[in-house]
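Why does residue order matter? Because the sequence determines the fold. Keep that principle in mind as you read this record.
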Amino acid sequence: MAVRFFLFDDEVARGWLPFTLTRPAGEILFGTETLRARSERVLGLSCGGHLANEDLQGFDEPGAPRCLPPSTIEAGDRLFLSSRFVAAEGASVVCSQPALLVAGPEPVGAWVPEGTPFPGSLATGRLPEWPAVSVDGTVLESVWALMARNEARIRADGERFQDTELPGTVQRLGDGKVAVGSGAVIEPGTIFDTTAGPVILAPGVRVQAPSRLAGPTYVGTDSVILGGFVTNTSIGPSCKIRGEVESSIIFGFTNKAHEGFLGHSVVGRWVNLGALTTNSDLKNNYGSVRFEVNGRSIDTGLTKAGCLLGDHVKTGIGTLINSGTVVGVGSNVFGGRMPPKFVPPFSWGTGDDLEAYDVDRFLTTTARVMARRGVKLTSGMRHLFRRAFAETAPLRARQTVR
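Structure:
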């Protein structure tokens, strides 16, 4: 019987807000692929599902496995890996008996053979007392570690791609790699700066001039660079990007089609940034940046850290976002005043004058937005968003409903 492979979100991964309110951590982009896709490729196994927060039941994204209840995974030989685990190239798992998998000193999963019950305490950190088996890789310790370690990740990923001979109308600086996927179009006058790392374009990408892409940078399938300067950034599928983007991760299906700066930030799926939306990624005193997560202010230890924007966030024209700002899922911020450093999910307004975004109106708009890209808002996702809205209601307790 083939090995059944699953990813699980432990307590740390479940705290990767604002993103894990609406998606399992394994469906987060890191480097040139999602954490789930990386594990699948390296191990040669197809992920059968995510074990995540129960409120994510109904998660439904094209190409991604669903979130499953533990009761559905009792049969067969099973491999469970932490969604925060980044498997090294060539890593493998070979076990003949129940085993705890470790990367260095840190537990990252379990091998559970046929007939052995699933250790349901894995996600809570209560680990079975099984023999330890080492697996090559590293572990992401926090959500802001994504932005801090993404540069090295893209650079390492570049080793898997072949260099492409560029037409004479395109300029390459440095002796690094430019990998161009099938069907990609690069307009004359584009500049690729490979001095610090590779530039990797997935199939179907279009780069319009004038654009300067500096490595290490990855642009995902069918995304469009509309002009500007992009450096040290991972961009997921079907995005439209213009302006200055630095040291950021954009999961996919996001519009940043106008000028404005995005730096040292992590941006979810289906985000729309209005014209001239700009974030700060450096404090005036050059001190380390703090984020508010789960009601706690946490020092990231990073001098440069911008914002975390959850899925389906929208900003109005000219929106300014402070360093260390978290904007929750489904929020719409606009107007001439900077939003607070923590915007509760499903908020609507300007500055500190935030109202609760009516969930029915949110779903209507979301379905319309996704349909424009040929993607359906499924009933499972509708239920997921409703649960997320209800779960986060206390965060909006003082807001009126719009």
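The first helix runs from residue 11 to 14.
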